[in-house]
Each structure stands twice: as structure tokens, then as C-alpha cells.
Design a protein that fits this description.
Blueprint: H1 5-15, E1 24-25, H2 26-33, H3 37-49, E2 53-56, E3 61-64, H4 67-78, H5 81-96, E4 99-106, E5 109-116, E6 131-133, H6 138-145, H7 149-159, H8 172-185, E7 188-191, E8 198-206, E9 212-221, H9 222-225, H10 229-243
Antiparallel strand pairs: 1-3, 2-3, 4-5, 4-9, 5-6, 7-8, 8-9
Helix pairs in contact: 1-3, 5-10, 6-8
């Protein structure tokens, strides 16, 4: 099947942007896309007109435009797990008065797709849309544990199990044992694995095919959660069981 060259070129421009390079100069875009500069300029002007690209004239750089905000909301609204899970998340927040999140896999990482943040001053939360590792943190380990073991190896090879704190699992065999334990027990707990003094408890959510599709978690400061892990684990499992097998995502 033939593809449309202009569309391919436009996509190559969008793919040049990443979380670690949100702002790019024309020369950087040229290096990443390898498009002829006249073509690159025409496409950038068109995308700027439509709101997909914004040019900062002061720094002479480009960033992704506001059109993606609307598109992002459309994508997230189409993930029906969010609407199904919201009542459960509200109950968990009311019970714990801590932050409640839902994560899904995104390549070798995880992404937060919904969240209810505690009203307490001392809190832990990730912004919706944040991309985080799969191999550390309770939600990441749950998503990884219920994936194929070939995927475990892919994550290990691609990330090198970089350490974030002294509690991050950085040894392959230790991670394997932890993931096997999570599959056996049906939940994961992390004690300051990605951020110091933060505890997270997470459980899997399954789709209609019985496959892992999301992780439901409660997170908060060590001093508030350390004596509540077992209580919140039970509540998370109960709520996740009420969500699982009810949607196709």
C-alpha cells in the first residue's frame, strides 16, 4: 500500500520531540528528520498554522502546540477503564486520604492515565501523562510481573536497571524473584524505590481476556502508610476485582 510522503515527513517532525527534548531548533529538527531544509520549513509553517507546532521567536526554537492537548484528552477519554475505575478510585481516596493512580504500559515504561490527589499538604503524585519506569515502583512492577518473561528481559536490557534510590532493584535475579512473588501474591509494594520515603501499594486490573492492562495504586509518605500497607492492600484488591474483566482495553 502506498503511503503519503508529506504525512510521513510531518510524522517524522513530531517524532523528533521527546520528554527530554521538548524544544528543538531548526538545525536540531534537520538532524533528527534529515528532511531538506526548504521542505522542513514549509511543513513547520503548515503545522504551526494548524496549532500542532509553536515557534518561539525569541529563542528561534519549536515546541509541540496546543492542538495536542485536545487530542490527548480525546485519547484518554476513549480509554474506558478510566470511567469504569473512577468510582473505585474515589472510594479508595476516601478510605485512605492518599493519592490514587492508574497506570498502563507504554513501551518499556508506564504512563499515568488517571489520578485522584490527596488534599493533604504532604503528598506524592505523578502528573497524568507522566512516563515512569516499569521495573521500579509498585505499579510498574505489577505491570511487568504480569507481562511475558521475554518482556522482562527486554526491559532489563533496555534500561540497565538504573538506580533511582538505594532501594531500587538493580540486579536481574533480584528483580526476577520480586516479579515472581508479585504474580504469586497478586500485589506489589515499594518502599522508596523511585523516590525516597514514599510507599506505594499496587494491584493488577485485568481486561475481558484476562490479561493485565492496568495497575491501581495508593501512594503516600512513608510515615503515613507504613502501618497501613495491609489494610490498603485488601481495599485495593477488592476494588480491582470489581473493575477487572469488564472492559476490552
Amino acid at each position: 500500500m502506498k503511503t503519503i510522503r508529506a504525512v510521513e515527513r510531518s510524522i517524522s517532525i513530531l517524532n523528533a520531540f521527546r520528554k527530554e527534548r521538548r524544544s528543538l531548533s531548526l538545525s536540531e529538527l534537520y538532524d533528527y528528520t534529515e528532511l531538506p531544509k526548504p521542505t522542513l520549513l514549509r511543513l513547520l509553517l503548515t503545522m504551526e498554522t494548524e496549532g500542532f507546532i509553536v515557534k518561539n521567536n525569541a529563542s528561534n526554537t519549536y515546541i509541540l502546540g496546543p492542538a495536542f492537548i485536545d487530542l490527548d484528552n480525546v485519547v484518554l477519554e476513549n480509554i474506558d477503564i478510566r470511567s469504569i475505575a473512577r468510582p473505585a478510585m474515589e472510594r479508595l481516596k476516601q478510605i485512605s486520604d492518599e493519592t490514587v493512580n492508574i497506570y498502563i504500559k507504554s513501551g518499556i515504561n508506564r504512563i499515568c492515565i488517571d489520578q485522584l490527589v490527596t488534599d493533604r499538604l504532604l503528598k506524592k503524585f505523578s502528573r497524568i501523562g507522566d512516563t515512569l519506569p516499569l521495573y521500579c515502583g509498585a505499579s510498574g512492577k505489577v505491570l511487568l510481573a504480569y507481562s511475558e518473561k521475554e518482556f522482562w528481559e527486554e526491559v532489563i536490557c533496555e534500561t540497565g536497571l538504573k538506580g533511582f534510590t538505594n532501594n531500587t532493584i538493580t540486579e536481574r535475579e533480584t528483580l526476577y524473584k520480586e516479579l515472581e512473588k508479585i504474580k504469586q501474591e497478586g500485589y506489589a509494594v515499594s518502599y522508596g524505590e523511585r523516590e525516597e520515603n514514599i510507599i506505594s501499594i499496587a494491584v493488577p486490573i485485568f481486561n475481558r481476556d484476562g490479561k493485565i492492562s492496568a495497575a491501581l495504586a495508593i501512594s503516600g509518605p512513608y510515615q503515613r502508610l507504613v502501618d497501613k500497607v495491609e489494610d490498603y492492600r485488601k481495599e485495593l484488591i477488592k476494588e480491582a476485582e470489581g473493575i477487572s474483566y469488564k472492559y476490552e482495553f
